[in-house]
Amino acid sequence: MSFSLQPDQIMGIADRVRTALDEMLERSHAVHDAVDALSATLARVTPARAAFDDVMQTHVSLTRGMVSHGRAAVSVLRAVVMAYVTADEEMADTTAASEARAQQPLFDPSRFGARLS
Amino acid sequence: MSIDLAAIPSAPADPGELRRCAEVLRQTGVPLRLSAEDVLLAWGLLPAAYRAPEAADLHGTMIGIGPAADEVATGVGLACRAVETLADELETVNRERDALAARVEGRVIPGLPELPVSDDPFAQRLAAEARADAEAAFRRDCTGLIDRWAAAVDACAAALRAIPDVPWSLSHRLGIDEPALTLETTSITDAAAAHLLGRLTDRAGVDAARLLAVHPEWGAILRSAQPAVISRWWKSLPAPTASALMTAIPTVIGNLDGVDIPARTTANRSRAAARIEALRRRRLDAEASADGFGSSAEAPREEATRRLRELDLEIAYFEAVHDGRKQLYAWDPDHGSLIEMSGDPSRATSALLVLPGTNTRAESFFGEEPITRFADWQTSTAHGSVVSFTVLTGPMPQLNEVLVGGGPQLNEYARERAPEYASFVRGISAVEPDLWTMSYEHSYAGAVGSAAEPYGGTVDSRFMAATVGAIGPYTPDPQTQYFAAQGPDDINRYYAGLRLGELGFDVAPESFPGVHIVDTSLPGVDPMNLVVGGAVGIVSDSVEHHNALMSDDETMNGRILYSVNSLLLTQGIEQ
């Protein structure tokens, strides 16, 4: 697996998803309001209203769950981005050190003696 | 139970209202599905930008959103159908109720006295029995109505209860975190940029150049931030730190929307010396080529001579920038952007943003007849009240690219330039919020101005000079005044308002709702040209009249020059 982190693109994606989720929340509110209005219209037909409320409550909850879940994922992405912008100095140093180590010969004759030819 | 209209039961719900509410509910479900698609589409790009072991779980996080949106759409659809069926049933029974009411009404004819009943006991008894029978029938009819309404309601309830429950796995996976839903979200890019700006500012900015050299990707992050965020940061800097940053990273400061205007022009002015030096080196090489020597001696001499002329013009331009005779607000040769300013923003009451269209390049700013003439005329005529910008935020279409698949018929240039132009506009608004802003968009640039509005690139007034209009669907900004002007035979009139996919623009400028049409006083088709030059003569005139609207020649373009000037002066003062 090749690793890559393109912070500017990740931020663009994260903000686009965040905005879409904000819009989704507004639309979830609209569904909720529409359900309430229809439920009020069913006020005098109690059995239908009760059934309608039962079934729609779970669906309205699901719309809110979609937004909530999405926002949780975006917050993880936000944490990744913030980890990058706050810690990349350290990461760069670590990477540089590990690269330097990798370039050293694995066999050190000063410690283990010369190889047998 | 007496037989009268008041005794007839009424329907338990209004079918019309049920249908209306069901339709509203159904309509709210559709946009929700579209939002889910937006989320999934954007999230689907993540694996290309973030590949790491810990990222695999994150990539799959949104997997439940699509099925959930389907579940909601299905549930809402079935519920609405059940309610609409109830409305139909109620309406059928209502018709029977209406028939019963009509029968009851028919029993009593208004104004006609009731027939007297005989005093004979037998007759009395017969009459009583007949009345009892009628009342019983009426009662049965009323009960029948109630029963049928109740049956319809029960059927509706049964249909609603038959809608499958949301799968537990889905509702469990997509649990609600109420606090997360009440919080207002903030831009991640802005947060990251603010942090990076803080790091650039650490130790009074002495590390800024090194940090940007080590992290070249920071530049893209900073440019993506809201100009308002940049503006707050810049205004908070101590003067020595700001000065250090202008010296250390002039390319970044000189192109960062939200940085104060004088700081940007100063930073870009400081870049001019290095550019002049580089251009002079190139000139020496070109000179050697023109003389038949030098490293590119194989290049044709004519080509080298032409190159020399171009270099001389560019050197002269950057010498003017270096001397302070010209003010560069933005300049990124790698991207192809150049924005020249004329005037003093600290004295001005209005800002004019001139967007030249097709064929504009950085080279259009150089030479004896620069593209900035229209803007310069406005600044000069306004005697300090107007600051003007001639704006090139990136590559614009070129006519000579038509044969190789480019050119001004493609609308992709407008889509690409729109966010850049919007950022420029928001940058000006962030640093000079009191300026009344007007864009003067010529030719292709009208499509850029239109496409920039959804990105927040809105101005107080847009003047569309012989522009192509907008990519549809287009809705004008309610806070913006719109003006349109073009000659009677302008070349744009032959195709504005036509679009097929990525070709053309489907909303002609003069068809914008509420647009004010301004007379150009340009002549129309000259029949003599048709006689002398045929179609070529006609097209040549059309192009000339098209280009005239970028001219500073008052004899040719005086009507538009003064119309724009009048708006800038009067509106800016009213602001």
Structural class of chain B: alpha/beta
Q: How many angstroms separate the termini of chain B?
A: 75 Å
Low-confidence stretches of chain A: none
| SS element count, helices of chain B | 20
The share of residues in helices of chain A is: over 70%
Q: What multimeric state do the chains show?
A: heterodimer
Indicate the radius of gyration of chain B in whole angstroms: 37 Å
Write down the overall geometry of chain A. Answer: rod-shaped
How would you sum up the major sheet of chain A?
none
Strand order of the largest sheet of chain B: 2-3-5-4-6-7-8-11
The shape of chain B is: elongated
Let me know the largest β-sheet of chain B: 8 strands, mixed
- How confident overall, as mean pLDDT of chain A? 82
Helix content of chain B: 55-70%
Radius of gyration of chain A: 28 Å
Mean pLDDT score of chain B: 89
Structure characterization notes:
The complex is a heterodimer of chains A (117) and B (575). By secondary structure, chain A is mainly α. Chain A has 3 helices and 1 strand; from the N terminus they run βααα. In chain A, helix 1 packs antiparallel against helix 2 (46-103). Chain A is rod-shaped, with a radius of gyration of 28 Å. Chain B is of the alpha/beta class and 575 residues long. Helices cover 55% and strands 9% of the residues of chain B. In chain B, the strands form 2 sheets. In chain B, strands 2-3-5-4-6-7-8-11 form an 8-stranded mixed beta sheet, sandwiched between helices. In chain B, strands 9-10 form a two-stranded antiparallel ribbon. In chain B, strand 4 (350-355), helix 16 (373-381) and strand 5 form a beta-alpha-beta unit. At the A-B interface, strand 1, helix 1 and helix 2 of A face helix 1, helix 2, strand 1, helix 4 and helix 5 of B. Strand 1 of chain A pairs antiparallel with strand 1 (50-51) of chain B, so a sheet runs across the interface.
